[in-house]
Amino acid sequence: MRKLVLILITLIVAIAAQAQGEHLKFMGIELKGSITEFQQQLLTKGMRVSYVSKGLPEGERVYDGRFSGYPAQVVVFFNSRTRLVYRAKVMIDLEGRDHATSLLNEMKAKLDIKYGGAKRRSQDFTDEYGHKFEQSAYTLTDGEIDLFVTSSGYTDHDTFYVNIDYKDAKNTSINTLDELEDL
Hints:
The protein is an alpha+beta fold.
């Protein structure tokens, strides 16, 4: 009997631990629930709805604020019918290729510390303007995080965007299944 109780307690603890890691976190907020609920949590973190949101298609909302100490824009993706949040993408714009490369390496080092370098796969990437960067992806049990740079022109002094894209596995699947209903 004592053994059975111990096994049940162990099983309950294991299930509770698994349930806590069910959704990918963005800024400490799980990528789950409605856009209204998610937005409220972003607002408490100092983000504010951007005027840019008005020109976007339904299912995307942009916020301005700070991310990891840098001024940034955050795009949150949600299902336009169910309002379920499934993805959040950060864009930090910088003047100059060297600044972007430096921030890209800094963010990669931080993500390696948080999630482990073993979960990262990287490859070289050349953008449409001929700029070469390394892009990385972290494959996690509860989603994926992509880290990459985009640019706005051919020179090394143009604007560059460091992107960190968080995709929750469970809610991305739910969103895709909902979209498949249209087909």
